[in-house]
Structures are given as C-alpha cells and as structure tokens.
Known about the structure:
Number of helices: 8
Radius of gyration: 28 Å
Mean pLDDT: 86
Number of domains: 2
Strand order of the largest sheet: 1-2
Structural class: mainly alpha
Amino acid sequence: MDAAYLVLTDADLSDCLFSGAFHLDQLRLEGRTTFARTPTGWHHRGIWPVRWTRRRTLVEEHHWRAQSTDQPVLPASLAPQPRQWRPGPHHPDPAPTPDPEDVAELYRKLRKAFEDGKNEPGAADFYYGECEMRRHDHTDTPKGERRLLWAYWLLSGYGLRASRAIGWLLAAMTITVLLLMSFGLPTHDPDPTTTGTLHSSKINLNTSTPDPALHGPWPQRMTWTRAEKATRIAVNSVVFRSSGQNLTTPGTYIEMASRLLEPTLLALAALAIRGRIKR
C-alpha cells in the first residue's frame, strides 16, 4: 500500500507488517499508538545473563530475531509470550523473513515520520532499532562500521541510554583513582633543590626539581590521603582540566588517558538525556 498522507490515530500496530509499504516517511501517527515491545525478564546468552532494553519495536524485528535465535514454532492458538520474540508467519524459513537491512530501512523511514511530526523523543526508539539492525547487518554494513556501532551501543546505547554512559563514567573514574594510587602518585612531593657557585663577588644559583618517585609497600599506597588526591585528579579530568599535581611517569599517562576518555563518556550521557527531552 501507499502510506503517503495516511493518518493513524490510537492504532494498535504491535502486529502490523510495514514491509512492502511505500512512503512510510509520510505516515502520520497520532494519539496513543501501540507497538510491539522487547521481551521482558532476564535471559541467557551462553553463560551470560542478559536483559533486553525496553523499547518500542517493529514486528519485523521480532520475526527476524525469533528466526535467528531458532525459537520453536508456537501453535497458532497460543498468544504471544512476553518473554519471547514473536515468530513470523513464515517462521523458521529465513527466505521470506525480512533481514536486518530491510528492517533498518523500515526503522529509518518511520523515524523520519516521527521527526517530521516534531516528536523527537518518540523517534528515539526507532533510531535505536535502526542502529541495532545495522549492527547485525553482515551484508550491507562494513565490519568497521559494525564494530563502531557495537562500541557506541556498549558505551551509551547509541547515545540514548544515559544510565549506561554514567555507569561507564563512574567505572572509569574508579579505575583511574585506583591506578593513580597504585602507580601515579609519588610517595612525597619532590622539593626543589638549589645549588650555587661563588666566583669572587658573583654567585650563580641553579634550582632543579627531582622527578617524582614512588616507593613503599602497597598498604602505604592505599591510604585515604592518596585516595583524596587521586579523586581530585579524576574529577578534574572529566572537564579537561589538569590537576597540577606532581605525578610519576605512569601517572602522567594515566591522567592523559582519563582526560580523553572520561569527558567523552560525560558527553554521551548529556547526549542521551537531550535525546529524551528534546522538543
């Protein structure tokens, strides 16, 4: 069908197939529109427990995921299970089931329809679904782009999950503090040393500061005083500021890495918050 100038109000689209429709970017969705949701609860992927991010999805993604995970065929009389993906009408035959490239295009067009209607937060789930399908598309998406999308998903949920970015930021700051306490902070701040020579009535003075040195057993490194210094350095790194603290050579590189990584995570968290409240 041609969806141009079509308006749907208070529609239940949880089982609606969009594949094959034209001009989906011109579709208008008003009122309380319902889409299929991701499975609920905890699941196992190998030995690791996983939980799907709650978001609105297209039923085509359900069909592809049910087919790719080899879900069993459910009886026609059985209602869809909230803890499973919904199998498609051709399950488990992969040929007539839309692949990630096709589903990504559907998400892209519907996302544009929401954005054209000035509903930026409503388009967020469709942007998430589009990136998910591109990340799983081994045909049209290059490997380098898939790896970049994987990192983007892992760090911030494609710039839409602020809690994930903040969690990584706190973890990075904690690791920075521990590394600085272990290898970065010197045992004592080095004191400048001044030496001079006297030539008749003229004195030549030379002031030098020794390199910061770290020595002593581990219990002396893990103290509250050193933890406070390391925390100040980590917090300064979030806003691209140098702490001005004397550091050992490993500590200098630790601070440089934190000044690159931690502001990036803070920016991803801010981007995710803005994506949810943008009008």
